[in-house]
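Table S2 (text version). Query chain:
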Amino acid sequence: MSLQWFFTAQSAIAFPQLAYAGTNVVTTASQLRKLFWHAPAQKLVGVFTTGDTDWNILGTGNPHIQANWRINYLWRDGGSVEINDTPLRGALSPYLQQTHTADTQVVTVAMGDNIGTDELSAIEGDALYPLSEIWGYDIYPVRYSSAAVLGQRYEASYLTTPSAGYVVPASSLAAFQVLKKPSGSVVVSVILGAFASWTHPRDMVYIDGVRTAITFMQMSGGTVNASLPAMVRLFKTTTDPWTLLWTDTLPATDSVMCYDPTNEIVYSTGKWASNAVIHASKLKQSPASLSTLTLVSGSTLHALRAAQISVLVTDTFGSGLSGVTACWTLSAATSGGSFLSAYTKTNASGITYGTYIGPQLSGSTITELVSVAVATIDPVGVL
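Corresponding C-alpha cell output:
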C-alpha cells in the first residue's frame, strides 16, 4: 500500500517537444524531473528535460550536463494546457533553477526565450520570478527574490520568504542533509553508510507551517530502482532538528510529487513517458497489513464472559498505525455472541482491541468466526 490514494488519471501525461538551444534540432522530452503546484494558476507545473539519466543530474559526470529544459502547465489529471507539439526552444543548462514557495507559488530563473524576459532589465537577470498564470514557459516580470538565496546546486528546495528557505544539497557520499538558508544551519542530517535508503532525495515539498515532506528513490542492489515508488518521509519542522513523523510510499511507480494545500491533495506521477500517470492522494498513511487475531488472555471463548481480542495494524514498512478505525464482525453461523462495539481505534502502537461477549449456552467453550477490517482511505467529504 501507499498513501491514501483515491484518484488515477485516465491517460498518461503527453511529454512536450523542445528545440535544442543552439542547433534547433527538435526532440521530445525524456524525463519529467519535477512536479509543482502553482496556486495562482490552479494548475500543476511539469518541469521536463531531455536528460534521460536520473542520478546524479547535478553531478559533473552526468552525460546530459547540457540538457534542455521546458516548463509546461498541466491540468489536475495531467492533461496538457499548452500545445506539446509546438517545439519551444529549450533552456540550455545543467539544471533549471526553480522552486516553490510557502505561499504556493512556483518561481524560476528567467530563461532566454521567456516572453517576460524582454521586460526585464539586465541588472535583474540573476533572480527568481513567479510563473505567469497563463503559460508555464513564461514568467511574471516582477522580481520575487534573488536566485542566490538558494545557491546554485541543490536536489530540492522551497522558500519560506523571499530571503529564506531550505535546500537539499547535491547528494554526497557522507550524509543526507537539509540546510536552512541563508544561515546554512543543518536541520536534518543522516549518515548514509548506515541508512542507505536516504541516499537519493528527489523532492522537498512544503506542506504547512509545521510539516514538510521529502521523497527518496528506492534502491535495489545499491542502485536506483525506477520501477519502485519513491518513499515519502514526513517531518515536523517546528523542532530543531526536524522530527521524522512517518515514512510511506507514493502510489504505483510514482517518483515525483507536489501538494495542493487548499484542497489538501498530494499529486504524484512517474518520471518517464511510460509511467507518467497522475495519482491524487491524501497526505495520510494507508494501512498495509493486519496481524493474526489474538486473545489477550486465555485461549478460549466462554459463555456470558467478556474476552478481548487484539489485532496490530501496520504500514508499508511494518510500523504500527495509530488512530485507524477497525470494524469487527462475526460470521452468521456462529454460537451467537456479539461485540460490545463493532468499531474500535488503534492506539499509539497500532494495536486495537475488540471486546467479545459470549452468549448464554450450556457448553463452557464457544467457537466463533471473527473478522476484522480497516479502510485503506478515510472518508472524503462532499465539496
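Notes on Table S2: The chain is about 0% helix and 45% strand. The longest strand covers residues 306-314.
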